[in-house]
Amino acid sequence: MSALVEEVTSLLEPTVAAHGFDLEDLTVTGPPAHRVITVIVDSDEGGSLDALADLSRELSTRIDDAPGPEVAGLAAFTLEVTTAGVGRPLTAPRHWRRARGRKVVITLTAGGALTARVGALHDDASGVQVVERTQRGPKVRELLLTDVASARVEVEFGDPAPAELRLCGLDDEQIAARTQTGRVSRASAASDTTRSEVSKSGVADSGISDGPVVQSVEKGNK
């Protein structure tokens, strides 16, 4: 981790947490004359455009007022605050909890892989229930997280089977919302990212999709 990334992470993480988000990743790219700071956040509720807009503005102010030598040297920068979106890897217990009902591709430490839906996370976060499709119908399987080498949420373009979602522990309201999301995803399949450009004048454009929600704030000269 570079000194700049470390300094920006330490600077922004408390503000991210104060807004109810987890800081999943932070990168700094681009030339010194104009850095691009990308902040990836997540929460149990996801992230609305309004919530990310508020967070983006406060993070931008934090960077502007930073006393640290690395951050203070940023004459111009673009700050992008984004949710992880579908397709993200599941690397912590909270990721499995938030992916409940999602289809995931899992690589096992013992070898082999499986595709299943995420069910309930164990109370002690040591494992998770997954729902597999079989010739006899969907089946619940217990899986220890220590047996998972990697796992990634898979993008779906069709409605999930309600029976599978019910085995994942979703109620009727959640199932209805999830299948509606599938219809919206198909209608907007050409775009897997929700983006809203934010400046001092406000929000320029926005949309809804199954991809990440992005807020951008630009400071200084391009």
TrEMBL record:
Keywords: Cytoplasm, Ribosome biogenesis. The lineage of its organism: Bacteria, Bacillati, Actinomycetota, Actinomycetes, Mycobacteriales. Pfam families: RimP_N. This is Ribosome maturation factor RimP. Residues 179-222 are annotated as: Disordered. GO terms for biological process: ribosomal small subunit assembly; translation. PANTHER family: RIBOSOME MATURATION FACTOR RIMP. One of its GO terms (cellular component) is cytosol. Transmembrane segments: none annotated. The keyword Transport does not apply. Belongs to the RimP family. Residues 11-86 form the Ribosome maturation factor RimP N-terminal domain. Its main location: cytoplasm.
